[in-house]
Amino acid sequence: MQLGIVGLPNVGKSTLFNAITRAGAAVANYPFCTIEPNVGVVPVPDSRLDFLSELYHPEKYTPALIDFVDIAGLVRGASRGEGLGNKFLTNIREVDAIVHVVRCFDDPNVIHVEGRTDPADDIETINIELILSDMEFVERRIEKTRKLAKGGDKKLLSDLELYERIQTCLAQGHSARTLTFTEEEKTTLRDLPLLSLKPILYVANIAEDAVGGPEPQYVAPVRQIAQREGAEVVLISARIEAEIAALEDEERAEFLSELGIETTGLDQIIQAGYRLLGLISYLTAGPKEVRAWTITRGTRAPQAAGKIHSDFERGFIRAEVVAFDDLKACGQMAAAKEKGLVRSEGKDYVVKDGDVVLFRFNV
Length: 363
Hints:
14 helices, flat, alpha/beta, 3-stranded mixed β-sheet, 6-stranded mixed β-sheet
């Protein structure tokens, strides 16, 4: 999973990126501090793997990983090449989902590119640039498809109708993600890299003194926009996250307790990212390795096995499965087997989040 961190200049993107990746990206109080995208690979925190590690004492511990990409700040006119617009838009096309950082605090010492704090306007600025860029893509696709469909091909005519529906939506100033598509239409759109179609998570960057207290007034318009788009909102303070990232585990837990928050911003962003992209993790465990494998929700056992190795999918026989919660309650795999909680599943089994799986195969 690759998440692109975007936003206007000076909204806290790089500070947040540093906090969640500890990658040391450049941070400065001026626009376009980030020119080339910084990439940080982050292990997904998973207490289930910690339990399995205590159980098996494996040689390797391998969590799921997420790539966070810190992309250059966007300004009005980016779709026409203003600022670093073209580079910015190209970088966004390569990510799976967008983490849109929105400034929801006042600070006269931190320059705002528009000169004032207005989350709704900030979001609109970026969304409009994404929409304008998408319109160019769609217009070219419509022109090409219209020529090809002159022969009356039903599939091409159906595609043309789909592209024109998206064009109408974009022309009205709405992101493509606000539309509903059939499974067949989703398949058609896979080769159309629309920016405004990507799943989006709004990260409201609030002041340090607002953490753990009443929700700042600036957050309300962010929630309203997210609701219209079917998106999610996470509240964090990028500066607080930077402080948390510098602490050891015990200190971190104590610091979070003092602030009155249960989870770090990183955990919230990762959880939201999994939900946005319809992802889950299944687990494998043994003396050699405990590991989390990320798959799409609804994946059947042979295809889940294929994440490990293509031979596992090709020669799939069965999957021995136990739900993590059942294994934890029993304390040992042997006890789970005695209670009949370890099941033998075939090719039609849909793997669930937290399944601990042993695949049997023969090639």
